[in-house]
Amino acid sequence: MKIDAHQHFWKYHAMRHSWIREEMSVLKRDFLPENLEQERSTSGINATVAVQADQSEDETLFLLQLAERNSSIAGVVGWIDLCSPKAAKRMKFFSRFDKLSGFRHIAQDEPNDRFLVGDDFVRGIACLRQFGFTYDILVHPRQLPAALDLVARFPEQPFVIDHLAKPEIKLRSRSGWAALMQKMAAHPNVYCKLSGMVTEADWRRWKKQDFRPYLDVVFGAFGPGRLMFGSDWPVCLLAASYRQVLEIVEEYVQDCAAEVKEKIFGGNAAQFYSLKMAQHGLTA
């Protein structure tokens, strides 16, 4: 069973998706399960985790509706306002949906680098475990100190770092980032997604070896038991095809044991997100 632990769907709307700049025009269209189907199946990926790209409950419901109609969507990472005093009530409402695994906030865009440890946000995070929800941490390296403080406060809460925390691959810099990721990995409740790398590199001139130093860091820090492959489709299309993104990780682990590959390409995601594969008609 192969799982893509991080991809997106949307019906393009210029205002709602204003983050898609002119140089990203390839993304200015609808991306729905039928658009991914051929790439996913020919790449041997059985299922995916659909992750929010818009900060609204409408987005969460949209992804859950897609998941209900498409068995290949094994889980959904949605959005609610975790800073709201009503966050726990909204979690209770969404807990009725089998495929809702957890939540994410686009913290990378917050002007306050300490957003993740603000009182209101921390109060919301404190409610997640009661309902069995995970939390995806989306940050830039400069925001990792706050992320470290957050995970230290909640040692029982499952967290996952999206996109290796977006290191400066284009600049070939690991300064500061590597040490912070090693500190993050010291918390056993934190996982890391092998995703989003191509869009942090030179979109047109990247080479597979550009990613090895960064993969070396996270493999050394987290080990194969807390890493999971994610395509970041369709955002990855800015720099690479679905197949190319998959091959970067496949080639890096090509000499690893079969059980290591199984964890990275499915087992870890299924465990972290508590994906009920057989229940949704998904079998190896």
Automatic annotation (TrEMBL):
Q: Where is the Amidohydrolase-related domain?
A: 3-274
Question: Which InterPro entries does the UniProt entry name for this protein?
Answer: Amidohydro-rel, Metal_Hydrolase, Metallo-dep_Lactonases
Q: Name the domain of life this protein comes from.
A: Bacteria
Q: Example GO molecular function term?
A: hydrolase activity
A Pfam short name = Amidohydro_2
The record's listing under PANTHER family reads: AMIDOHYDROLASE, AMIDOHYDROLASE-RELATED DOMAIN-CONTAINING PROTEIN
Q: In which family does this protein belong, per the annotation?
A: Belongs to the metallo-dependent hydrolases superfamily.
According to UniProt, the name of this protein is Amidohydrolase family protein
Q: Which organism is it from?
A: Candidatus Acidiferrum panamense
